Amino acid sequence: MNETVRFLQSLADDDIDIPKLVNCVIIDAVRAGASDIHIEPWENSIAVRIRLSGVLNELVHLPLDLMPKISGRLKVMANLIAHENILPQEGRAPTFPEAGNVELRVSTFPTVRGEKIVIRIFDPTNRSFSLTGLGFEEDTLTVLYKLLARPSGLVLLTGPTGSGKTTAIYAALHHIIERAGPTISVATVEDPVEFNLSMISQSQCNPARDYTYPVALRSLMRQDPQVIMIGEIRDAETANIAVQAGLTGHLVLSTIHSGSTAGVFARMINMGLEPFLLSSSIVGVLGLRLVRKNCPVCSETYTPEAGLLKLLPDEIRQTADFRKGMGCTACAHTGFSGRATVTEMLIVEEVLREAVLQKMPTRQLQEVAIQQGMLTLWQMGMRRVLRGETSFEEVMRVIGFEGF
After folding, report:
1. Most buried pick, 167, 186, 242, 281, via CB within 10 A?
2. In whole angstroms, what is the distance from residue 151 CA to residue 365 CA?
3. How many helices (H) and strands (E) does the chain have?
4. Number of domains in the chain
């Protein structure tokens, strides 16, 4: 039984101590290893859900009339405007020893039933910014090390929200500092700064004061940086500065949202950048996804659905030992324990540069990259399936079928 349920059962509705209730929810989420807490007014109750390994799980349902009090308590913790419930708000809040002294990022969002609150949980003691600790495949790591050793160029990370881009890019910066020490100047522009990194100058954007990515980057270029990390390329101006910096002797690391690794070029061309600039500045694109790993306690051999098996070549279908977690107390009956990284490393070399210059469609760029030796997300995911690390269905859920 979790702390929240135990607390609720110990007293009547009219005796509920809201600060204590909020603390219990946070403690339960932290102990479960959740990344986010969702507190949302539904039709007949307040649904409290926690995100475990990328998937939402119900924690508890609370009486609907408690929502204003819970919202008020969290706003006080995050130094937000308590009476403001029409506009969204964001803030940060520390916690307490029972919750491991984690940091909370609180976001409120007005809905027709009241405010929805999402709390992102950051545990500084549980973050290891080591590339070797991220579970990358050896061939991916080898190529990434070579890219990070370059004196200039633009390295982009792409993937959906929650795919591990921030952790990977911080680990890349940590690797650069470990390799070069105080002989290299590293600076970042972020919105927001997720974690403080040693020996790195980190700057946080403040759009309310007109301190945006372009403004920060133009100023940063006069600070003699060798390595620049841009939290995210969101607009044409930021993209243009990143590309120019990569062309003028800086190693630039950044993230960009794109449907696929090869789709990064089309995304930036649509922002108005010239293909010849992209082909000259971008040296590599790393696509990232996270899949849940099978629980080692209850993992068993199983046979996937016939429809899924048809997607595989006969030789794999006949010899593969597919495994899946069946659910036990060790994994909270989910069948999964922890997550693994699936990567797609696209290297921009001469053949691909020519394809970008010709403005080839994304599908053709993908085919060119595969011909040059790139392993797709699907292939890398299937590696983990065939090693018994995750289930076939999990790879399909996260990646889908993109051709074996």
Report:
1. 242
2. 26
3. 15, 15
4. 2
294 assigned to some structural domain: yes
For residue 248, give Cα distances in angstroms to 80, 94, 185, 242, 281: 42, 41, 15, 10, 9
* Lookup: tokens for 311: 């997607």
Torsion angle of the four alpha carbons 71, 72, 74, 78, in this order, in degrees rounded to the nearest 10? 130
Work out the angle at residue 27's Cα, subtended by the Cα atoms of residues 114 and 79, and round it to the nearest 5 degrees: 50
Predicted structure pTM score: 0.88
Helices 350-357, 362-371: axis angle to 10 degrees equals 170
| Interatomic CA distance for residues 397 and 120, integer angstroms | 23
Decide: 122 and 34 in contact? Cβ < 8 Å: no
CATH classification at residue 133: 3.40.50.300
Task: Mark whether 171 and 30 lie in a shared domain.
Answer: no
Query: CA-to-CA distance for 179 and 158, rounded, in angstroms?
Result: 24
User: Which of 70, 99, 123 lies at the terminal end of a domain, its last residue?
Assistant: 123
pLDDT digits (tens, 9 = 90+) for 71-86: 999 999 999 999 999 9
* Residue where a domain stops, chosen among 97, 123, 149: 123
With CA atoms as reference, report the closest residue to 358 among 256, 236, 265. 265
| CB contact set of 122 (below 8 Å; sequence gap of 6+) | 102, 103, 104, 105, 194, 195
Same-domain pairing of 385 and 250: yes
- Do 52 and 149 lie in one domain? The reply is no
Q: What is the DSSP letter of 206?
A: B
Token representation of residue 389: 């690390």
pLDDT 10s digits, 230-278: 999 999 999 999 999 999 999 999 999 998 999 999 999 999 999 999 9
Same domain, yes or no: 133 and 204 = yes
pLDDT tens column, 185-195: 999 999 988 88
Cα distance between residue 83 and residue 358, in whole Å? 56
Q: What is the distance between the alpha carbons of residues 207 and 45, in angstroms, rounded to a whole number?
A: 36
Say if CB 300 and CB 350 are below 8 A apart. Answer: no
How confident is residue 14, by pLDDT bands cut at 50, 70 and 90? low
Above 50 in pLDDT, residue 404? Answer: no
Take residue 30 and report the two structure tokens written for it.
Answer: 């932290």
Region of 79 please: left (phi>0), alpha (psi -120 to 50) or beta: left
Amino acid identity at 171: A
Band (97; pLDDT cuts 50, 70, 90): confident
Contact 262, 365 (CB under 8 A): yes
